[in-house]
């Protein structure tokens, strides 16, 4: 009988803090954010999180002309994850491998840029790329991985706004438990800084982060926070059943033991603490844990005035009888990577299982009294006795919430 225990055996990523888990973790502990100013069409200089990775490490120049930016991110992360897991591409059971990638935006990025390019040629459609349709379908990022790696198992993307990174991992867990696949490549990806429209929309909502120092533009929980810093990135994990990982002597990063996805069903944009409370409690029930058994919560907090307050309100309610649970935030370093956010932020916290260190939320110079919380790790890393469980929050527009619980691997548990 197949085990329901699903473990992480590989992690591949690209983020504004680097292109490996080790590099990202080092910068988190050194308190080194990396937000740049990009010259955005119609808007001028704007803070953004930019990834700098070798697009030609796995894709040839000719392939990149057809591939989307998020497709190249996906291929890079998937290949890095497989290498990290110790699985050679030739040995991958390709018809029993699934690809499940969370996304926030896709298609609109390519279409917007293609329309702009067409405007330079007096809107003559003969200049419109014939690759437009495959580049803009929603399954493009996962499909790029499938084609590049010749994976014939299921591939699709999960559109779950900014809860998508967690949603990709949750889908993979479910498919492995259903015995639909034996290996899953799962996580979240985003090319969002390539779209003028995303920035303009946040700007019109009064929710686009600004600061004279771009590295301080993303400042969750700070009294002066004024909005989101848009970032790109990706994090893809290799997931497999425990017996598979053990049989090949794989390194195990952690075990996914609980999760939940629910909906506020209240507002298109504004988050709701009650919905977030229900989501976290449902995830705890799924993991068969009490709140006091969670060592660390990674917050979704995006540096918006209302969003941060609502999440702290929800966390306080859930942790009412959990005095030792610590809370941190990763967007203060990398901004908001949209569909990739949950997966990237989880990755940055996973090394806590080994070293017991919790990276801090940075850029808090004046803590908002409405976000004050005694166990919020602020501005300096915290060395703890141990971190054995992590609850990873990711929430998104249209009221979608996700919480994922990861446990330090214990072979006999």
Structure, described:
There is one protein chain. The protein is α/β, with parallel strands linked by helices and 413 residues long. The protein has 2 domains: 6-247, Peroxisomal Thiolase, Chain A, domain 1, CATH 3.40.47; 257-407, 3-Layer(aba) Sandwich (Peroxisomal Thiolase, Chain A, domain 1). It has 14 helices and 15 strands. Helix 7 (164-177) crosses helix 13 (341-349).
- Output the structural class: alpha/beta
Order of helices and strands: EHEEHHEHHHEHEHEEHEHEHEHHHEEEE
CATH-assigned homologous superfamily of the largest domain: Thiolase/Chalcone synthase
Tell me the number of structural domains: 2
- Named CATH architecture of the largest domain: 3-Layer(aba) Sandwich
For the biggest sheet, the summary is: 10 strands, mixed
Give average pLDDT, whole number.
Answer: 96
Overall CATH class of the largest domain = Alpha Beta
Shape, principal axes of CA atoms = globular
What amount of the residues lies in strands? Answer: 15-25%
- Poorly predicted runs are none
Indicate the CATH topology of the largest domain: Peroxisomal Thiolase, Chain A, domain 1
What is the C-alpha radius of gyration, as a whole number of Å?
20 Å
Tally of contiguous helical segments: 14
Key descriptive features of the protein:
413 residues, Peroxisomal Thiolase, Chain A, domain 1, alpha/beta, 2 domains, 14 helices, 15 strands, three-stranded mixed β-sheet, 22% strand
């Amino acid at each position: 009988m197949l085990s329901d225990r699903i473990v992480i055996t590989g992690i591949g990523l690209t983020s504004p803090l680097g292109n490996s888990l080790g590099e990202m973790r080092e910068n988190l502990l050194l308190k080194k954010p990396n937000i740049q100013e990009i010259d955005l069409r119609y808007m001028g200089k704007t803070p953004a999180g930019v990834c700098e990775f070798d697009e030609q490490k796995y894709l040839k120049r000719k392939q990149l002309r057809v591939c989307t930016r998020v497709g190249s991110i996906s291929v890079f992360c998937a290949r890095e994850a497989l290498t990290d897991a110790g699985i050679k591409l030739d040995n991958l059971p390709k018809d029993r491998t699934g690809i499940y990638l969370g996304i926030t935006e896709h298609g609109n990025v390519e279409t917007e840029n293609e329309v702009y390019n067409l405007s330079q040629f007096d809107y003559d459609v003969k200049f419109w790329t014939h690759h437009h349709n495959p580049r803009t379908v929603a399954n493009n990022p996962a499909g790029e991985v499938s084609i590049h790696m010749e994976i014939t198992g299921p591939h699709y993307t999960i559109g779950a706004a900014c809860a998508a990174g967690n949603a990709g991992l949750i889908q993979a867990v479910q498919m492995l438990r259903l015995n639909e696949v034996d290996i899953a490549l799962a996580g979240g990806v985003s090319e969002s800084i390539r779209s003028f429209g995303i920035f303009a929309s946040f700007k019109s909502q009064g929710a686009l982060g600004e600061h004279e120092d771009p590295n301080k533009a993303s400042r969750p929980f700070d009294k002066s926070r004024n909005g989101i810093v848009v970032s790109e990135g990706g994090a893809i994990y290799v997931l497999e059943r425990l017996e598979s990982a053990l049989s090949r002597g794989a390194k195990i990063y952690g075990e996914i033991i609980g999760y939940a996805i629910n909906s506020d069903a209240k507002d298109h944009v504004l988050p709701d603490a009650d919905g977030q409370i229900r989501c976290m409690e449902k995830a705890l029930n799924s993991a068969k844990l009490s709140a006091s058994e969670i060592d660390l919560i990674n917050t979704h907090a995006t540096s918006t005035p209302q969003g941060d307050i609502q999440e702290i309100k929800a966390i306080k309610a859930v942790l009412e009888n959990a005095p030792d649970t610590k809370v941190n935030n990763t967007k203060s370093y990398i901004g908001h990577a949209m569909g990739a956010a949950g997966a990237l932020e989880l990755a940055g916290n996973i090394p806590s299982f080994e070293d017991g260190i919790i990276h801090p939320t940075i850029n808090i110079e004046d803590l908002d009294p409405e976000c004050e919380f005694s166990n919020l790790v602020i501005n300096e890393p915290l060395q703890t006795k141990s971190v054995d469980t992590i609850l990873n929050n990711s929430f998104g527009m249209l009221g979608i919430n996700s919480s994922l619980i990861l446990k330090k691997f214990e072979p006999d548990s």
